[in-house]
Design brief:
Layout: H1 7-16, E1 21-23, E2 43-48, H2 54-63, E3 64-65, E4 68-69, E5 75-77, E6 83-85, E7 96-97, H3 99-107, E8 127-128, E9 133-138, H4 150-167, E10 174-176, H5 192-203, H6 238-249, H7 265-278, H8 291-297
Parallel strand pairs: 1-6, 2-9, 2-10, 5-9
Antiparallel strand pairs: 3-4, 5-6, 7-8
Helix pairs in contact: 1-4, 4-5, 6-7
């Protein structure tokens, strides 16, 4: 058992293991700490999302849904291997589980698999997993046939090894949700014993030395604010497409198709959602970009 990592140490551990990390706004203080304990931590639980698409999955895991508030994990592992951080602290991901499994994970004394779970959320003997485990949701339909790309499996291996290395755990501290609760079947499509073998093989090697400044996220080249007059019906530019894609990624889409290069009503309505998300109201949230909201959106540079 261990004290949970701070946000800075958490990110540093992932990047030192070669993980590509995206820090989503607010993740460092986004948690359910007011609704139960956070720590001591004992391991990592891997989940699948039963969803497709990165942007909407990250939004769901950050916000949660009716009856289950977010964050729903600490990080979302996309199919391209990128890890999107959405929570720091207690998260609604593990729920109730089997105390025998918890003991086996803490002692790391089990063989190929921990003992079969016989408890679940709400059962009389269940223990609180949200206080004890880091959780990672992996984008996958969970039907057993949706593929697990090598980059995604590599990221699962790396994030698991990163946290095990940071806390001095072995690979038996990494389990699937189905190994924690008898109600769950995730993750489906790959074997947790095989993943633990991969994690242990990585732990048996010295971590790669990060390149200079590798602990810092790369600073992308951003599109400067083109001015309010740029956003009119006649404008057709790849800048509009890049803006629209960022709005979709931020969960502020009013698009039925697209986004595309020509400025239109869907762009304005989407941008108004973004302005509201930033806290603008009234005429300041009319959907016409201003310098402050544009700079906060971080539209990538395009020629």
């Amino acid at each position: 058992m261990a004290t949970p990592l701070t946000a800075d140490r958490f990110v540093a551990a992932l990047r030192a293991e070669g993980v590509t990390v995206v820090e989503h706004p607010g993740w460092r203080t986004h948690n359910r700490n007011g609704h139960g304990a956070w720590g001591p931590v004992t391991g990592v639980i891997i989940h699948h999302t039963v969803s497709a698409g990165t942007a909407n999955t990250v939004e769901m895991c950050f916000d949660g849904y009716e009856g289950l508030p977010g964050p729903l994990c600490h990080g979302v592992i996309a199919k391209d291997g990128t890890v999107h951080l959405v929570g720091n602290g207690r998260a609604n991901h593990a729920g109730g589980g089997d105390p025998a499994v918890l003991r086996a994970v803490v002692s790391e004394t089990y063989g190929d698999r921990p003992p079969a779970p016989r408890e679940h959320q709400g059962s009389s003997g269940a223990v609180d997993g949200n206080s004890r485990f880091y959780g990672f949701e992996c984008v996958n339909l969970g039907n057993g046939t949706d593929p697990w790309p090598p980059a995604q499996l590599d990221a699962i291996e790396r994030v698991s090894a990163a946290l095990c290395r940071a806390h001095g755990w072995g690979a038996r501290s990494v389990i699937g949700h189905k190994e924690w609760s008898d109600w769950k079947d995730d993750p489906r499509g790959f074997a947790m014993p095989t993943m633990r073998d991969r994690v242990q093989a990585r732990l048996n090697k010295a971590p790669a030395k990060p390149a200079p400044d590798a602990g810092k996220p790369a600073v992308p080249r951003l599109q400067p604010f083109p001015g309010t007059s740029f956003f009119r019906r006649e404008t057709s530019s790849p800048v509009i497409t890049a803006m629209g894609r960022r709005l979709v990624a931020e969960g502020c889409s009013a698009y039925t198709v697209g986004p595309g290069p020509r400025w239109g009503e869907a762009d304005r309505l989407s941008y108004a959602k973004w302005q509201h998300k930033l806290g603008f109201r009234g005429s300041d949230a009319d959907g016409i970009p201003g310098a402050a909201s544009w700079n906060a959106l971080k539209v990538p540079y395009t020629k």
